Amino acid sequence: MKAKTALLAILILNILLLAQYTPPHTNPGPAADRIIGKSVPIEQAASAVKAGDIDVYIFGMRASLAAPLKGDPTVMLYTAAAGFNSIILNPAPANPSCLNPFADRDIRFAMQFVIDRDYIANEIFKGFAVPMYTWLSQYDPTYAIIADIITQLGIKYDMDYARTIVEQRMSELGATKGPDGKWYCQGKPVTIIGLIRVEDERKDIGDAFASALEQLGFTVDRKYVTFDVAIQTVYGTDPAEFQWHFYTEGWGKGALVRWDLSSIAQYCASWFGYMPGWQTTGWYNYANATIDELTDRIYKGNFKSINEYVDLYRKASQMCIEESIRVFVVTTLNAYVANPNLQGVTNDLGAGLRASVFNARNWYVPGKDVVYVGHRYVWTASSAWNPVPLGGFTDVYSVDWYRMIYDPAMWNHPFTGEPMPYRVSYVVETKGPDGAFELPADAYRWDAKQKAWVSVAGEKAKSKVVFNYAKYIGANWHHGQPIKLADVLFIYAWYWDIANDPNKVARESGVASYVNGTMAIIKGIRILNDTAIEVYIDFWHFDPNYIASWAVVTPDMPWEVYYAVDQLVYVKQTHAASRSGATKYNVPWLSLILRDHAKAAADVLQEALDQVIFPENWFKIGNKTLFTKDEALARYRAAIDWFNQYRHMIISQGPFYLYAIDTANQYIELRAFRDPTYPYKPGAFYFGVATPVSIKAINIPTIAVGQSGTVSISLEVPEGAGRIFYKWGIIDQTTGKFVYISDEASATTTPITISIPTDVASKLTPNKAYKFWIYAYTENVPIVAESTQVFVPRTVAPTPTPSPSPSPSPAPSPTQPTVITTTTVAPAAGTTEALAAGIIGIIAVLVALAFALRRRRGEGTQTR
To answer: Which residues cross the membrane (predicted)?
Structure first.
């Protein structure tokens, strides 16, 4: 692990050798003294930057608004594949069954073929998007392991194919077509309710999808809705109520991920809580047992090699696509507009400028002490600020601001997606995948029934991680109280509690299912000293940094805030942790920025202060007591004082603290946390901008059937990108299937020369079109570039037979067919070149090759 951490530091240095940052000062905390955020309509973002009203806009601009800004010296544009769009289908069974076509798997899969992704990417998004078929696109590093699956499934825009499936299945479900060409189910029109968002390109996507459904004979009730209405209807109601049948989802990415373990579960598996029903007890809940089992194994590291991980991921991915609960549409190249004088920008290849723990801390405009930040919204009714996993911080608006306020323990590198230390250091030891550590007698786990820490001596775990929280402990929380190891251990205990206490599980079942996915594999914790713990986790990964990232907890809020949340949600039950809980129990969805909610939390602490309530058992681990009653009372007073001063209960430990938020006026103000105990200064975690590899040309000479050949790949590789990894294949244009696909290989120089072996060339048919397919990415910026080129192999020229005649007739030269070359290349995220070029550049070159014919007498050109 030590070697791994050192390697990561070298990678960071190599990638950003040219990145320069001059801090405005050397004080603890961020570069700027204040961040002032406000809501700015997307249409006004560029003009607001030009006028100096804001310095940066952190919501992705519409393509039609961003394109004219290319080359404008009064603004700076940053791009990143930081979002994507999908259409979620409601699979709840109806009675009779023909009333909900999307309950049928075959009809859902047919929906993959009614979406013209190329049109959406190039026309609706003006080239600021790329077609996508899963939760991953070529801008996600893990995409490399499933890229060929997408090709082999042959999904494309094909209404005739979709119509064939729908006609067959609807008839089998008992539906009939009327003389008007519409489907009827027991005399009633088969009506599909579509919730279509109106704020952005999703209106066009929804209308296009609705029109396709109407062409298939369905009656569509188009409901045009805004954020709050859509979120409440789709994610806050039982799917079996059929308040919706499809919804135009939009997603903002949080960070680049090198090896995906959780997204596949989020978008495919029921247990994660993001599939229809949302794991709410008593509602219809979609589930596929095989997908659940495969994704659970991936999530918990239940594989023995990288090859097994790849195999599990590929199987789950293909099943998820075939289930088609979600039909993925496009990955968007979000464009962020900024003041060209804004310093300290890190463009995360997975999140852009939003959802960042790197940017706000380093932003500043020379000569100014404040940075003005525009966002689409500062707050919405769906922006719940509470620390319950899957309960709060589930929308981009709450997440984007909160990540400016706290320091995570670990985070993913913005260019590699590799987990790295942020405010903890760690050492990983593992005996996995087959071996295990035996937990010592002084290792403990929280028992939700006994409400106590209990010894887990003798239990087994594949790995253990020593975390040192020294950069937290001894520093202060925003309310001035020192951070303690007790804060860390309380959060571990609380996660175990809400995942295993039967009453708490029943109250927030979706939360419990999600949290238990991680806490079930953390087997115990051993306290080493005042700043370090040893976490035993029954989890293995071929990358040790992932073992650490699965075992770590971030102390983002002091334990007394968690205690107050626990009392409000689970004990007093006056509030809900999640949206679905709020709907089910008809109580407010807890948000600690709302004054009445924050007051309720402060009242809990006031009650604890007045009655001298101290949950001592949460802090007694073996013969150690991590917190005292007097310290607890001091914490209560500090938190209550905080509420009285700021009228909210968001207390954290990062470079800024929340000074004010006015939800009615869409205003937020963050102020620098200049406490001398804060460990970081401006310049920490600055990375700048990186550029992925791009494929410039595929050069294919004439390929002869049965003979080996070579292909030359020209690449543009940025400095410091490291080794190049690539994989290639040959696709039959007729079937869409691979004739051959290679293993992944690597190179250190360009161009790359690929040899087509004789046995592969022997599988080809002369004068038939094939597609040469390749992807490439680099070691330090693992964003996939993917390209194809059509070629037509020729027959092998026959070997001339020697003739006894001194003047033999020349052997006929074979006719060489016309070659059609098509190259598809996605531009690099993070560069403004992508804005003008569009996402997919298609170059069709028709080359008529000269051919020789042996002239015979009488074969000259004749007139008729």
So the answer is: 834-853
pLDDT digits (tens, 9 = 90+) for 475-508: 999 999 999 999 999 999 999 999 999 999 999 9
For 857, the 3-state DSSP assignment is: coil
- Reported in sequence order, the residue ranges of 499-582 that DSSP labels E, i.e. its strands, are 522-527, 532-537
CATH match for 406-653 among 3.30.1490.20, 3.90.76.10, 3.20.20.210, 3.40.50.720: 3.90.76.10
CATH topology of domain 2-80+332-375: D-Maltodextrin-Binding Protein; domain 2 (3.40.190)
Q: What is the CA radius of gyration of the chain?
A: 30
751: preceding bond cis by omega (within 30 degrees): yes
- Provide the angle, in degrees to the nearest 10, between the axes of the packed helices 595-610 and 559-566: 100
**Given this chain, do its domains 406-653 and 694-794+814-847 carry the same CATH topology?**
no
H-helix or E-strand spanning residue 709: strand 709-716
| Helical ranges in 128-184 per DSSP H | 147-153, 159-172
Which DSSP string do the residues of 422-479 spell out, in sequence order? Answer: SS-EEEEEE-TTT--EEPPTT-EEEETTTTEEEE-TT-EESEEEEEE-TTTBTBB-TT
Q: By the 8 A CB rule, do 235 and 477 touch?
A: no
What is the architecture of the domain spanning 81-331? Roll (3.10)
Phi, psi (rounded to 5 degrees) for 195: -90, 115
What are the backbone angles phi and psi of residue 78, rounded to the nearest 5°? -120, 140
C-alpha 234/C-alpha 732 separation (Å) is 41
Phi-psi region of 367 (alpha: psi -120 to 50; beta: other; left: phi over 0): left
pLDDT tens digits, 610-621: 999 999 999 999
CATH class, domain 694-794+814-847, is mainly beta
Task: State the pLDDT at residue 729.
Answer: 95
**Other CB atoms within 10 A of residue 597 CB:** 23
Per-residue pLDDT tens digits for 117-129 = 999 999 999 888 9
At 53, which amino acid appears?
D
Confidence band for 797, pLDDT divided at 50, 70 and 90? low
Beta bridge partners of 334: 80
Q: Does the structure show a pLDDT above 70 at 637?
A: yes
Residue ranges of domains in the chain = 2-80+332-375, 81-331, 406-653, 694-794+814-847
